[in-house]
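Practice problem: predict the structure.
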Amino acid sequence: AGRDFDREGGFEGELRLLESGKGSQAKLSVRVEVLPPLLAAAPPVSEPGSRLSITVISAEGLRAADWGGKSDPFCICQVVGKPETQFKTAHISKTLAPVWDETHEIDEYQQGDSLEFQVFDYDRGSAADLLGKALLLFNVFDREGGFHGELKLTECGKGKTATIKVHVRVLPPPWPLAPPISEPGSRLKVSILSATGLRAADWSLLGSGSSDPYCVCELRGKPSSAAQTRHIAKTLEPQWDEIHELDDYEHGDVLEFTVFDHDYGSASDLLGKAILPCMAFDREGGFDGQLKLRESGKDSTATLTVRVEVLSVALLPKAPPVSVAGSRLRVVVRSASGLRAADFSFGGGKSDPFCICQIRGKPDLKIQTRHISKTLEPVWEEEHEFDLYELGDSLEFTVFDHDKGSASDLLGKVTLASGDFDRAGGFEGELKLRECGKGYSAVLSVAVEVLPPETPEAPPISVPGSMLKVFIISAKGLRAADWSLRGGGKSDPYCVCEIKGKPSSKCTTRHIRKTLSPTWKEEHDIHDYVHGDALEFTVFDYDAGSAADLLGKAVLHCREFDRDGGFTGDLRLRECGVGRSAWLTVQVHVELPSPSATPISVPGSRLRIAIVRANGLRVADWGIGGGSSDPFCRCEIQGRTETRVETKHINKNLNPVWNQEFEMKEFQREDCLVFTVMDYDRASSADLLGRVALAAREFDRAEGYAGTLKLRDSGNGPPATLTVRVEVLPPLRPSSAEPGCSLRVLVRCARGLAACAGMPDPFCVCMLRDKPHTRRQTRTLKGTAAPTWHEEHRIRSYSPGDRLECIVLDHDVGEEADLLGRVSLESMHFDCAGGFDGELTLHECRKGSLATLSLQVEVLPPGRLPLVIMVFAASNLPDSEETSGFVCTCHPAGRPHFRARTSERKIAPPPVCTWTEELHMSEYVEGDAVEFQVLRQDKELMLHEIGVASVQHTAIQDACGFAGKLHLMNSRGRNAGILNVRIENIHQWENRRQAEEEERRAREEKAREAERQRREREELERRRAQEEADEQARKEAERRAAEKAARRAQALACEVVIPVLLWPGDEVIAQISILGGATVLELARRAARSAKLPLCPRMRVGGRLPSEAELLWDVGACDSASRVFAEVCPTILTCSADFTAKVWNAGTGQCELTVASQEGVSHDGAVNSACATPDLKWIATASDDCTAKVWVVDGVMRVVSVAWTLVGHTKPVYSACFSQDGRFVVTASGDGTAKIWRMRTGQCVHTLEGHSGEVLSATFTPDGMLVRTVGHDRSMKTWEAETGRCRGTVMGQDPAQAMSFTPDGKLFLIVARCSEVEVRCMTTGASKQILRGHAGQVTWASFIALRAPHVSLTALRSGKLGMSDKATAAPMLKRSLSASASLILSPCQSSRAGSAAPSPSSCVRGLSSSDRGEFERRSRSRRSPSGTAAKGGRSK
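Answer:
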């Protein structure tokens, strides 16, 4: 206690530990000293409205919370107990000594508030770790100059000393003090004008983002007062200019403003918050200004502009009230106008309004009008009355829109203060509704008048102990709660009456079926009445198997019936249904207690209760023969469940006879007995059959009480009765104990125990009430309902008047023990001569069980000190063949009847008899000697004395007791052996046991500590070895990285020769000399130019596809072991309505070329078709702009330019096609003509006329001599290319474009969607690539069978061909037309049918002898037998 150390010198000493174990004498050594305060006392400088300026400067000595040996600390500060004042600093990465130097302000400081600083380690994606916290008391900084210094952090880690440096100053309030102008019921007029500097919460492609802000204003702690502005889209400087009124204002309330960003479909984002204390606006003139927003973003300076004004609650000037105690209110709800339309309708929308009026703060005093359908100008003209009006009550009117099957919609609400109607003449007029919808101005017309009480004032007649006689007669006008097929409907009403706020006083009538005007005529007694109590009547509709429906309620105040004559009349029911008028007829009068006799009870008196019988109980259990009950009765003193007693239950009986007597201790005057009759149900809770209370004045008299009590809540039908007898008994014998006595408790056995499931494992706990350190516990006996412990326990610290508590528990492994029963034994029962010896009935047993506990309790005087004697062994004992064993006994000298003995033991060689048994001598008195006797038992079980020995009391009373050897003397005075014993009193024994236990625990703790240190050393060595290995690995990695970087730098500057192979295969197509630092794209371009490939190939290094921007050295292309491949995938040409044509890589799906010049020259209409030369040097496009264009293509550099624009057609051009030799282009147009153009000049050579409609396509034959055209008239014409003459016409041709395939037939094209082309596998139909890039509909798509000249490895090695040898390589590329001298860049190589064979002499220049021979052999095989060129061929 404070008085023990709050003194000069403090406290230093030992404290005895409670609850430290059975028989424990544990102590704790402490030293406590009171220190002076850190700072001298100084007067506070704060005043109402003061603020705090807090600068969090730095911290030092923090622990490392992250694996790398650092932390990312940040600090949180708040006023203790006010989480809304919390602020947080930024986190600083990788440091144990952070420097924040951040200043924040807290607006809501009150004198006495302390500050809490918490330092955490920031962890992304997980909870922050605590690094320490500190508390700064208000008297340290609430002074002149504030506080500037370091605070020591607690919970900062074992062995750590961390500090945080802060500067805290108290700032004066921003507003001068002014007297408040508000009064009870005042309102606030809040104008939310604008905000500035908000952060962007929504991301935007077009700029830095924006927000959709809205503001919420509410009184702190009153969420029902919240008002919200509209949200304004896409702005950081919103202008709301909205006015709201808040009704629930009381002086001292704080306004909270919160700005959010509105997000559809997700939670709003916080943009900032601000508070405005009442002193800022509860003054003359209110508040008009800007508030700085907190939590508005890093480095934000956001502000909110508001105007707040306190409005007077009264609508009329003040006038004296006219109400008195018991006054009523007459409220007339007349009409409303200007309501908003809450229901959608094609005709403009309507509402179904109804009005609810209630007294504010009394939700049970509420009335409701009917709803009027489809109107915005309802007229109700309904009159209602409130019975319990008190001076100061305000009225709340709320108008709703009625929606069947869903919640009602709010149309407006208003509050009418008591001062506006509690006056002469009352109030009649219009009230302006609030929250009636944006842009609406709705009003409610009402009339309110204060009425005088229905009954005049009269003096109360009740006295303490009075009870109420309540006669519930009938009801009328009830609503139909049950639906009926016959129409109309009925109810099954019953009435509940109780004293308001006292549910134990409840009484219930029976329910009457199928009526709206029930007649009960039932009388009930209520005993708990005190003057001032009000009676509450509630009428319900009974529904079997479901909750009862409310039919109405009424309240009868005490002034109505606590008078001469009581109350007889009708009560108007409230909440009885919209538009209904229901009444309840009752009679109530106060019954004064009978002239009481002089009570005979005194402190310690007991009660003898006889529960005789019950009659007329209801049926609680259904049965085929009509049903019955299994009743039992429970009795207890009201409010004290520990005094509860129960009778046995009687099966199948509605008129049970128990005839059981009980004795109840601890009766006090004015105690009330409660009798409860229940129906016993196995495996379910008991059902109530009735209950009744019996006041003490009825039985605390000489003759007691004997009679029949009428049960309440006994069900329908005649009331049930209970016959009992109660008698007050005098206290038991007076106490004979002295200070310092102890108790000897012998726990014998228990009977009739019952567990929840199966057989219990009982044990018994004994202790003195309110002295938990005296707890004693028996052993646990397994699986028995009748345990026999027969254990003796000593309980010290007994004082006269202490109560002994015995609790029988069921032991459950791993769970809390279950209660089997408990009993309390008053000191008067055992603190007397002879003590207590008998059986006690256990309370709180399992239902239906009757359990008992057998005890013997005796008060031991201070001089009687039990001994514990350990008999070890006896030696040198005489032995014979007739001896079967030895026994040792001991007893106090002169009192052999308190003898204790060991068990029988035999002599084992050497001649020693060992017992090692503990004997308890409870009757030892200080000063007695202890005598020992060793006996020999013969085979006939007869005992013969061998020797005796004694120990004097002086040896026993030694501080450590006695331990040693005793010489046994026989009857002749000779030595008969040696006996080894130890004698201790109970305290010494307990202390030794405790010391041995502590020593054992110390050894175990020491062993655990040694094991822990060994593990720590091993872990430290392991970590050290791991760190050394990690360091060596790191250095090795750094060395390798440095070597690799040096090799890379050297290789990037060196030129290497890279052989490029054609994928797939092993054929080398180019030898490229290039720098190791070049990109993969540069290698691809040079390989394409060297091998004369039409497009830049995709490069493969080994099995990897590197990106074009990677360096050759990085991808391993410079390694001699790496193989570099050039992969040329099938090429696709597409046209689109977006005025472009594109060349695609079918392998990757990427666009290689877009046919448009760098100057932006392109077609002015959709491109209908396109074609390309086999070497992809030229592309021709046909367009809806009536032109065709010829483009020059550099596929390697991915550059396209316009060569010619073919102008001459008058309608859209549908087709363009090159001749085989590339000298001509033929186009087909919608003007009914086709034209042949010369590539060299771009001039029209021939116009082919003859089709009767549009010409859809025109193509050259493979030999280039003929042109075939197909028209819309389904005719195909053949023309001579040289002359333009028509050679023939074939009818019935389909102009539809055929599907495009690769030359090997493995892939084909389809237009997947309007702007996409899909490449699919021919065999499986699976999609390989989707070509996306056109902005319009794809009009044409086709594979291009590209060809490039084959360059042999021999020519490459001889150096005769290369990137610079254009004069030799170019002519050969132009003349190579056959498969022997060309390479088809497609998944399979093939040649066009009908291609002319070139002259061998024109193609062999620059080739080696072997290549030249192979070329000439293939050329001769393609010639005709006459030695001339094949038909249709060219010899140029």
